[in-house]
Amino acid sequence: MDVPSEPYGAPAAAESAGESAGIPLRRLLLAVGDPLVDVLAAPAGLDVRVDNVVIVDPEDEAEAFAGDLVLLIGARGSAARHLVRAAARRGAAAVAVKVHSDEPAYPPPQGWGAPPVRRGGDEVALLRSEASEAGVALLGVRPEVRWDQLQSLCRSVLDDARLTAAADLDESGGDLYSLAQTIAALTGGLVTIEDSASRVLAHSSGEEVDELRRLSVLGRRGPEQYLALLRDWGVFSRLRAGEEVVHIDEHPQLGIRRRLAVGIHAGSQPLGTIWVQEGSQPLAGGAEEALLGAARTAALHMVRHRTETAVGLRLRDDLLASLLEGRIEAAALADTIEVTADRPALVVAFALSPAGAGGRSQGGRPEEADRSGRELNRRRLVELITVHTAAYRRTSLVTAVGGRIYVLLPDLARAGGGGADSAGGSARRSAESSVLALTRKAVEAARATLGVAVQGAVGSPVDSLAAIPDSRAEADRILDAMGRDLARDVATMPDVRTQVLISETLAYLRGTPALRDPRVTALAEHDAAQGSELVVSLLAYLEDFGDVRTAAARLHIHPNTLRYRVRRAEQVSGIDLADPTQRLFTHLQLLMERGT
Question: Which of 223, 420, 538, 555 is buried most, with the most CB atoms less than 10 Å from its CB?
């Protein structure tokens, strides 16, 4: 692979001159790494800036705007060429398509510093010609690469670029600078902490720096000619793959001393890298162990920094949370959002399902890594829901409170005064139906793109923002009930009203000791002492209305065994199951014992 001939610092100079949005396509390609994509055409070079990454399929209308990297799913032949032209007309920075080619690569033009251009068959040749005429970069995605993985990786690189461009790193990276000094003391080396776009977030002090470290610290990012070499050596692929500490040998002719590196991850998501350069003395014996612990600590710092960057959004979130909890008047939002306070509104609540709150299994990863993964899941879920709701209604507001994510949808249609068949009533029903569809779409998107199970609850509309705490409370009641019904992922109050009422009745019983029946308590204590199963057997019997055969089949026991257990339960507890009032209250008490 050819080393770029352009002097390091040229792209950085362009950025400092005012191009702060996004990053050059070349830098995105270097961060994504091999063997995911190849450059098929770049008529405007690889310094075009990428601001966002979107997925488009042949059924969609082209919605790419200036700065987008457009991933074309399932597009072949003329359909793909049409979408390439459409994306170019709307100002896309680059378009990516799946290609199938075994032909060898040839070097890119001198100075590109990007993956090699590949020749392809007739279809690829036509696409390259189309992209060249349209003036848009064309990327070939390897067949084995999943679109959602590529999108997630590209977005992570872009997110890091935005955050570090928008923030003063000397201030926002204060915790990381302290961590870098600590790592340096533990390893005996010179430390650099970088994000996934190879931007320098923090570094330790010290002498004896090599050329790579000097250029990285001075330029606030890794120089592209060195990044290209590291990528070519497979270093970035290994760092993204897991927690392996990677050794980079000394290369005196390149000005590179021996190094250790470890990837920073939140769950399965790469966030960046910690590099330790060896000075005149060998690194400390426990350097690798120190690096692993430092990477897990850095992940928490970086996730927290991502969450807290936008101070203005945090103020809006705080105001919205106060409104949802009934602590402020709706008028307090007047300077923050443009909504009509006396129009109907409702709240949608989302929560990670109890069955999948941690997202994809991390295979025994340490508690710190799991915690950072959960934090990243919640942050990414907020972003996903924000995108979906903003597309539905510009005035929508999203915030996270107490582990749940709430969406305020204001300015709904007001029901007319002409009854159920009035135009206003029909419009309101239509709005409620569309909100339900929006909620399902967000839940499905979270499962497909984030790999997490999410449940969504739609509160009933209220007549004005002043009553919005009522809609939020109802959404919470629905989610509480859904947490014990994991088969359901989206619901409204009519869907789960019975479960909600039973759940709240049992919660009241649990909180009122005077309403506990000592006979049921004695039955539970007997089971605990004797190892019997009288409680679960009696509960199954009552749930099936005394149908012994059905209940026994559900418990996988003989009907006579169940009959015996029911009689034994009556003897131990003193409960008379022939009395309907005792049966009713016993059933509630047994549900409470089971923790329903």
Answer: 538
The CA distance from 93 to 344, in Å, is: 41
Task: Give the position of tokens 């690189």.
Answer: 157
Nearest by Cα to 230 from 200, 256, 269, 201: 256
Residue 33: count other Cβ atoms within 10 Å of its Cβ.
21
Give the CA-trace dihedral at 154, 158, 160, 162, to 10 degrees. -170
Supply 65's token pair. Answer: 């705007």
The torsion angles phi and psi of 319, rounded to 5 degrees, stand at -65, -45
For residue range 552-582, list pLDDT tens digits in order. 998 899 999 989 999 998 888 888 888 888 8
Tens digits of per-residue pLDDT, 173-208? 446 777 887 788 878 888 889 888 888 888 887 767
Q: Is pLDDT above 80 for 383? A: no
Q: DSSP letter at 22? A: S
Top pLDDT among 197 and 276 is at 276
Per-residue tokens: 208: 């004896």
Tokens 């570094």 locate to 203
For the chain, the distance separating the N- and C-terminal CA atoms, rounded to the nearest angstrom, is 62
Say which residues have a Cβ less than 8 Å from residue 455's Cβ, sequence separation at least 6: 350, 351, 353, 443, 479, 482, 483, 488, 489, 490, 491
Overall domain count for the chain? 4
For residue 423, give the CATH number of its domain.
3.30.70.270
Percent of the chain having pLDDT more than 90?
11
Q: What CA–CA distance (Å, rounded) separates 227 from 332?
A: 50
Q: Which residues pair with 305 in a beta bridge?
A: none
Residue with tokens 């991390």: 362
Domain boundary among 472, 502, 532: 502
